[in-house]
């Protein structure tokens, strides 16, 4: 039996038959015995929006997401953990936006460094001429003719 200690909030996981999502809740619930993991799915393949109705009819919200994006699973139902190589990014479980840590959310101003413009067209060299087709050219330091055709 898998333990909830293997998982943490904002961790990306794959749920068999449901797809990929982000862990938004870990712990005990009022709707069933034991440890549960609330996942916000990337696609609407879930059963709720993070809210579950208790037996007495009252609603309990464990996390917030769009309708049909919420799913509660036992730890053993998690198929795999998805490694995120961009460790400097954090995921907000309330709105699925990705923010850079320490970011104000704005785009940085353009760089003010000076870039020297150069021409992509080579300058014309003077005094050099291509040999006419069918001619033979003798290069300095060579003993014979070299065919330039």
Structural notes for this entry:
This protein has 149 residues and is mostly beta strands. It has a domain at 11-81: CAP Gly-rich-like domain (SH3 type barrels), CATH 2.30.30.190. Helix content is 0%, strand content 31%. It has no helices and eleven strands. The protein has a five-stranded antiparallel sheet, with no helix packed on it. Strands 4-5 form a two-stranded antiparallel sheet. A hairpin with a 3-residue loop joins strand 1 and strand 2. It is elongated. The N and C termini lie far apart (80 Å). The relative contact order is 0.17.
Describe the secondary structure blueprint for this structure.
Elements: E1 12-15, E2 19-28, E3 35-41, E4 51-53, E5 59-61, E6 70-73, E7 78-82, E8 89-91, E9 98-100, E10 136-137, E11 146-147
Antiparallel strand pairs: 1-2, 1-7, 2-3, 3-6, 4-5, 8-9, 10-11
Overall, the morphology is elongated
CATH superfamily of the domain at 11-81: CAP Gly-rich-like domain
So, CATH architecture of the domain at 11-81?
Answer: Roll
Radius of gyration: 33 Å
Regions with little confidence, pLDDT below 50 for 5+ residues: 87-123
Widest sheet, order of strands: 6-3-2-1-7
What are the secondary-structure elements, in order, as H or E? EEEEEEEEEEE
Number of strand segments: 11
In the CATH hierarchy, the third-tier topology of the domain at 11-81 is known as: SH3 type barrels
Fraction in beta strands: 25-35%
* CATH top level class name of the domain at 11-81: Mainly Beta
Largest sheet entry: 5 strands, antiparallel
How far apart are the first and last residues' alpha carbons, in Å? Answer: 80 Å
The helicity comes to: under 10%
Please tell me the overall pLDDT: 73
SS element count, helices: 0
- Secondary-structure content class: mainly beta
């Amino acid at each position: 039996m898998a333990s909830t200690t293997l998982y943490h909030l904002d961790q990306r996981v794959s749920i068999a038959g449901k797809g990929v999502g982000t862990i938004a809740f870990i712990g005990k619930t009022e709707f069933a015995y034991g440890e549960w993991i609330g996942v916000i799915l990337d696609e609407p393949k879930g059963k709720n929006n993070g809210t579950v109705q208790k037996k007495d009819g009252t609603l309990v919200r464990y996390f917030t997401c769009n309708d049909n994006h919420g799913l509660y699973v036992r730890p053993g139902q998690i198929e795999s953990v998805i490694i995120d190589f961009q460790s400097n990014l954090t995921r907000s479980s309330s709105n699925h936006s990705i923010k850079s840590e320490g970011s104000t959310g704005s785009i940085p101003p353009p760089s003010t460094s000076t870039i020297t413009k150069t021409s992509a067209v080579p300058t014309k060299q003077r005094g050099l001429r291509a040999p006419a087709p069918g001619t033979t050219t003798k290069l300095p330091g060579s003993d014979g003719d070299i065919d330039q055709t």
